[in-house]
Structures are given as structure tokens and as C-alpha cells.
Amino acid sequence: MLQEIDQKVQQLMWDVQKRTLDRMKQSYDVNLKTSYKDLVTTVDKENERYLNQRLREIDPDAKIISEEGYGDQVNDLKGHVFIVDPIDGTMNFVMQHCNFAIMIALYVDGEPTYGYIMDVMNDKLYHGGNGDGVFVNNHQLNTPANNSLHDSLMVLNAGLTLDGGHNVREVGKQARGLRMYGSAGIEMIYVITGRIGGYLSYLKPWDLAAGMVLALELGLVVKGIDEQQVNVLSSNLVLVATKQVASDVLELVD
Ligand code: 2AM
Ligand code: CA
Ligand code: CA
Ligand code: CA
Q1: Which of 73, 93, 178, 234 is deepest in the core (most CB within 10 A)?
Q2: Are residues 84 and 185 located together in one domain of the fold?
Q3: Beta carbon of 48 within 6 Å of any ligand 1 atom
Q4: Which atom belonging to ligand 1 lies closest to the Cα atom of 184?
Q5: Cβ neighbours of residue 35 closer than 8 Å, sequence gap 6 or more
Q6: Nearest ligand to residue 202 Cα
Q7: Which N-terminal stretch is annotated as signal sequence (predicted)?
Q8: Is residue 211 lining ligand 1, measured as CB closer than 6 Å?
């Protein structure tokens, strides 16, 4: 049952990638949400409607949490819950036409079960979970080397770094280098492939859900800065990192 859902959601990720690439060749509207830094396009909305409709066909009893308002009102993680980000990195989508992702996760009775991150412009689907391992397309990923902060590149939330809260500038100073890509999905891909040692940011459920499944499946650490386990529905400032980077960063943040 779960394996069948997994196969169908993988196919859905390739279908939505193709639709997105086709849609980018035509014009679309860009609207402001809360400010000129917070955008939504017709492609975000069309993708979300399409994904939610296909997910309802794949798994009719599941509930759906999604960013742009076409999901269900969900207050708990009982049963099957899909968490959908129809375009992650909308600002990059609009301004750069790259460095954005499409993400889905399946949580079963609260358990992080399957995660899917589609790197649209690079034709790469990162997926896995449920004890199967993590794959990029059909190639299985190894757990990244357990490097320290001193030996790692680090991604920090831009706003938090600018205002200097939680002593994060010290984290940036002690890392081997600091990077910011503007898409939680792309940043999570870099952590699970070992290109980045740790990622610290404010994450909503749809920013976190898929990457959290893949990171946990690989034995990476996903924690709040209070060192507590993360609840995907109510997460705040979240660290995804190698074990050593997590321990180095949690010692520095306040
Ligand atoms: P989005 O493009 O799906 O909105 C940008 O730095 C990254 O943070 C993107 O992954 C973006 O997702 C996400 N993001 C944007 N606004 C956010 C907010 N208010 N809280 C948390 N994440 C946000
Ligand atoms: Ca958004
Ligand atoms: Ca997002
Ligand atoms: Ca989004």
C-alpha cells in the first residue's frame, strides 16, 4: 500500500516538473503576499491545485497541508497527511528561473515516512524514506561525512544573519564558509548530499516536511535550537545538520 503510493507520488513529481517547465515558457502573474519580498505566482497556485487533485486520487483518505490555500484544515497528524510546497523559492523562480524546488512529504500517524524534493531545473528528484534509503533519481545516496562546523559550509537564514539574533553570526564566523540559496528545498538537498554541513532557518511545515524525512533517513540531525525534537506542524527555528555540526552549532546559539 505505502510502496504503491510512493511509486505514484514519484511519477507525480516528474509530471509536475514537466508542467512547470512548460508553464515557464508562457507568461504568468506575480502577486505580492505580505510584502514585495514575499511573492506568489499563478504557477504556485496551479501547481498546488494540480498536486492536491492528483494526491486525492492517489490516496483518497489522506489529508493535505499546503501553502497557498487549496489544502485541508489540519490540526493533527493522524492517518496519512501529505504536506505540499508547490514552488519552494518563489522569489528565485521569478527572479532567476532556477534554484527553486517542488516538495511533497507523507507523514503517517505523525511518522516522517516519504519525502520528495524535485530540483526542477536540474532534472533531479530526491526521494526516499520508510527505511528504503534516499535516492537521487535512481542513485542511492550515502550518509554525508560527519564533518565539524570548522570543516563545513553552513547555510543560515538571511534575515536572522542580518539582525544577528541567537548568536548566529558566531556560527557563520566559525564555519568554513557561509552560503544562502533562497530555497529551503535546494538548501536541504545540499545538506543531504554533503555539500553543506548544516542549515539553520525558520521553517514552515511545507518548507521542512520533505527535507526532514530525507535527512532523518540518512541519520542526520533535525532539531530545534532548544535541542528538542521538531514537530513538523509547529516548528520554528530548525537545524538540519551532520551530528558534529549540530553539536557545534547548538553549543554556540542562544
Ligand atoms: P517559499 O518560496 O515557498 O515561500 C527563502 O529564503 C526560503 O524561505 C524559501 O524556501 C521560502 O519558501 C521560505 N520562506 C519564505 N517566507 C518564509 C517565511 N515567512 N517563513 C518561513 N519560510 C519562508
Ligand atoms: Ca511563499
Ligand atoms: Ca517554501
Ligand atoms: Ca512555496
Answers
A1: 93
A2: no
A3: no
A4: 10
A5: none
A6: 1
A7: none
A8: no
Q: Same domain, yes or no, for 12 and 102? A: yes
Beta bridge partners of 63: 81
Sheet holding 80-88, edge to edge: 63-66, 80-88, 101-108, 111-119, 124-128, 134-136, 139-140
Same domain (yes/no): 126, 238? no
Residue minimizing CA distance to atom 3 of ligand 1: 88
ipTM entry: 0.96
pLDDT digits (tens, 9 = 90+) for 26-54: 999 999 999 999 999 999 999 999 999 99
CATH of the domain at 176: 3.40.190.80
Residue 154 domain boundaries: 149-252
CB atoms within 10 A of CB 84: 25
Asked whether 207 lines ligand 1 (CB < 6 A), one says yes
- Check whether 240 has a pLDDT greater than 90: yes
pLDDT at residue 110, as a whole number: 97
pTM (2 d.p.): 0.98
- Does residue 120 sit in the same domain as residue 174? no
